Every structure is written in C-alpha cells, then in structure tokens.
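re: that chain from earlier
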Amino acid sequence: MSRYIESKCKLCRRERLKLFLKGDRCNTSKCAIERNRTTPGEPAKKIRKKLSGYAIQLREKQKVKRMYGLHEQQFRKYYENAASTRGVTGEILLQFLERRLDNVIFRAGFAPSRSSARQLVNHGHIMVNKHRVNIPSYIVKESDIVEVQEKSKNLDMITQTLAKNGGKTREWIALDLPKMSATVRQLPQRADIDADINEQLIIELYSK
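^ sequence. v structure.
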C-alpha cells in the first residue's frame, strides 16, 4: 500500500489547522502553522476567500482523513460500514476511526502521534488480549486489553511519551501504567472525541 513520504507539516498548512501529526513538535514554536499559515503551493492572495459548499465538505473529509492517516479507499470503507450500521452514521464513522488499534495506542499515551503508534504496531510491539497484533487498522472491542510486549517496555519512545503524558488518557480507556496496558472500558462516544470535526459534512459529501 502507498505511504505518504512528504512533509507532514504541509498537510496541516493545507487544512490551515493543527492536525498534530508530529507529536510534541506541534505544541512548540517550530510548528509549521505557527510559522507559516499560507497554503503550500500557491500565494495566499490567490486563495479564494469563500469556498463552495462542496469545497467545504471536501476539506472536512480531507482533514479527518489526514488526521487519522488514512487513504481514500480506507476512509470510504469506514463510511460504508458506518452507513450500513444502525445508528447515527457520522458518530459511528468517528467511532470506527477511534477504535483503530493505532489510534488506541496514541490515545493511551504509548506513542506521541498516530504515525508513531502505527509503527509500533507494524513492528510487533503491541499485543491485544495476549496475542500479538501487527495490523494498525485492527478494530478493538469493548473489554479488549491492549498492552506493550514485555521485551518492548523499555523503548525510549514509549517510556518518554508516558512520562510526558503523566498517565492522562480518554475516559473510555483505562490505563495501567505499571503494566503498560490499556483496557477499552467502553466504546467511544461522540462526546469523547474532542477534535474539531463536523462529521455531518463528510456524510453529506459521500451521500451525493
């Protein structure tokens, strides 16, 4: 599968919003948004001041896609699964995204960013219910226990990130710091997702 290898800061500048793709760097003065708010590739004076309805919907979709590090095919599949599931489609879509294993690792504080969390999973450092899982898109379920493999507990990235976070995580995740494990207490609800996302715009875009 293809992988984005260009500057991640360009993605934040394109959306004119911090997507927190580079972990702690995004909270410093080195953040690209803090230094340059123009859209990459074209002078700011040429950017249209008013976007069409379709453009607003597209930008919202691109923002969320980039936030979770997904390609179009993956993202559309999550939408189709959400649309076929009983409930509010937009909320179910976000729930699927939050339940991805790489996102759970990030939310639990084992990695500074989702891309770093994806790397941990790909390299076999993570276990779910005592079984090694190396698929970042694995969807966790309620009561699942996600933990760092014993031989990986001394990795600098994990220990440093946990130290900086101070054990802070989301309400739907119960963190056990000594064991470096996180239990999915319940499935995430819309109120648990504090990112600036208007999921209804995405649903309207795909419903056309």
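The CA atoms of residues 102 and 136 lie 5 Å apart.
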